[in-house]
Amino acid sequence: MADPPASWTILAALRWTADYFRAKGVPEARASAEILLAHTLGLSRLDLYLRYDQPLNPEELSRFKALMVRRREGEPVAYLTGHREFWSLDFRVTPAVLIPRPETETLVAAALEAARSVGAGFKPAPTPEPRPETQNLKPGTPPLWGAEVGVGSGAVVIALAREVPSMTWVGLERSGPALAVARDNARRHAVHHRVHFLQADLLAGLKPTAAFTLLVANLPYVPRAEWERLPREIRAFEPSGALLGGEDGLDLIRPLIRQAPQYVKGGGWLLLEVGDGQAPQVAALMEATGAYDRIETSQDYSGRERVVRARRRDGAG
After folding, report:
1. Sign of CA dihedral 217, 223, 224, 228
2. Which of 73, 74, 245, 303 could hold 220 in an S-S bridge, CB 3.0 to 4.6 Å?
């Protein structure tokens, strides 16, 4: 590859770093260079090209080179910058949480469609309610409750809370460090008064009362054999507990499907993100409960069946 430039302008730094990353096998080499340099300089990626001839001072160059080395070693860009965009919102991320993926936006879209089907109002937010006692949720108070199991960074539940301000949400997560990130993101996006977080394993933190209109989850679903084939930057840096779902990927999905009918109101929906090829098995598990009258799937941007959703029988619960 080329020698380092004599003058480290923004454009020279971008070109050299992109070539360097390509030579080292770094995925998305140009985008990685742009994002890291924009983060270093406090600029947007567009600003980099508007100020292409601006020189980097020694302190900026030192910080940028440190990020380059970490990226070369496989550390994800989102952890290096501490941010990731999801549903056109900016979320803080740390190594305590899974980095939100574009395909998970399919879960948000499917949940919004389900919310419309049950009459959730897409309207101005109501006056904030006092924080409820989540151990004793009562059906219909307030009339529309949603829950996410395994919130991670909070990206899904926060996106839903912003899109459907008539609903109040409970976010359950077994990891304390992940909950801290989710709570911070809820404050940053001004939905903390309608998203109430609780540390719990699956639904264990709630009494089995059919209180929820929507119950969504993006649980670990990567089978062990597939885990071994994932890129190093995922296996070495992202939390394995947020990805690895046992031998067939369904170790947590199975018990949640069994528990969910006790928590979802009649006419409400259970929505699960699943891995490639898992939708038929997950749908069969839902069907086996006898609790649902509609089971549907939604495809992600790549045409893969990414979400399985089931409607609780009317009058149930």
Report:
1. negative
2. 245
